[in-house]
Amino acid sequence: IHRHHKRTPYASNTFPRESYRWECKDQGLFYYGEALDSTSNKTSASTYWSVYTDPVNPFAQAGFNGSCQFPQITLEGLEDSWQHGKDLYGVYHDLLGFLPSQIDNKVTYRVSNNVITSQVAGMLIQGMYNPKGNVPLHIQPSDIDSLAPSYSCPAASKLYSTYGVGSFAANWTAHLSATAPLFKALDTVSGVAPTSAEWHNWFDHYYDNLSARQCHAKPLPCNISDPGLCIDQSQADSVYRLGQYEYSFIYRDAPQSLQAAAGSYGVFLAELASRVRAAMAGQSDIIYRHNVAHDGSLARLLSFLQVEQMVWVGMGSEVVFEVYKRAGGETKWFIRILWGGQVLRSSNPSLGWKEGSVDMLEVKVFLAYVDGLVGRGAEKVVAFCKG
């Protein structure tokens, strides 16, 4: 499971008016439906969205002018997605001989209901397999999706709100009060209203806006009316540092974070446990499951695994669950979890049994940990969310 790759910022994270354009004319976002019945000779044209603004339209576009959707995976993000797929194939096929040479029913891909994950998946699959035919992307209904996640869990949302974004908890508001001068300086350049709660109850909006620019080698913004008044690199670095602090606090440092993550991401973990059990029992032909998700997905997953050091999950960052069976002797199964290409380190003594590393941990220990928090079939999640 990994976060999508580079994208434009969300529209809600753009300034009221941006000082330069953002163009995406070097790519196409392909959207069309087609009959899967092989007997039909009525196929679809290969169509893509071409964003434009008509000069007759009297309404001004908020945020960036240009030819992009906000968000969409950029050309750089598409290229990263392709390379990600190529690298995965290089490791799990060429190096380890695990993946099949051609895409088949042993390999599946899953995305969220946000189209940017499908934009990534298409390029990634091409980088892995260069398939000749159509490839299904598995997706759950939008109101119960466990990957994003988007299923309703009021208890988890309420718990997050008691100590994190929007709360009045002193250990949350302290850093916001201390950084009031930084917010004021950012607002002066951006034109964001100082009274906007969404922009000032955490640094998420400024983080996304500034990091999206710098991920694409775009200049930091200047004021529309005063081009000499700009956000400088030291201010941007402060935003990034504070964003890292906020993610660590929300998903790891706060005592309530584990329970909140178990409630809001427990269904995905229950699904994962079910897949592992099926593999061990020889009840599934699928050997590789690939999930394209979001920063909130990975953050909750890392929270659940009690990662030793929490960060704001970067574009393309992945967590890999590898299941091993011992060759010869008594049958035993083991799991290794990778984070950022290295063995994940967990603060939980059951998971991080090897000096903090989740490395060749007996599967039964991992499954007991998951079941203890979310229950078989996520039964404990249902009870918690309704509580």
Brief account:
The protein has twelve helices and nine strands.
Throw out a few tags for this protein.
387 residues, alpha/beta, 3 domains, four-stranded antiparallel beta sheet, globular
What does this structure look like?
InterPro entries: His_PPase_superfam, Histidine_acid_phosphatase. GO terms for molecular function: phosphatase activity. It comes from Cochliobolus heterostrophus (strain C5 / ATCC 48332 / race O) (Southern corn leaf blight fungus). This is Histidine acid phosphatase. This protein is α/β, with parallel strands linked by helices. The chain folds into three domains: about 1-130, no CATH class; about 165-255, no CATH class; about 255-385, no CATH class. About 40% of the residues lie in helices and about 10% in strands. It is built from twelve helices and nine strands. Strands 6, 7, 8 and 9 form a four-stranded antiparallel β-sheet that branches. A hairpin with a 2-residue loop joins β7 (about 335-340) and β8 (about 340-345). α7 crosses α8. The longest helix is centred in the last third of the chain and has 24 residues, at about 255-280. The radius of gyration is 23 Å and the shape is globular. The mean pLDDT is about 95.
The count of DSSP E runs of length 2 or more, i.e. the number of strands, is 9
Tally of individual domains: 3
H/E series: EEEHEHHHHHHHHEHEEEEHH
| Largest pleated sheet | 4 strands, antiparallel
Helix content: 40-55%
Number of helices: 12
Morphology call? globular
> What is the typical, i.e. mean, pLDDT?
97
Q: Termini distance? A: 29 Å
Oligomer: single chain
Structural class: alpha/beta
Low-pLDDT windows of residues:
none
Beta-sheet strand percentage?
5-15%
Radius of gyration: 23 Å
Protein name: Histidine acid phosphatase
GO molecular function, one term: phosphatase activity
Organism: Cochliobolus heterostrophus (strain C5 / ATCC 48332 / race O) (Southern corn leaf blight fungus)
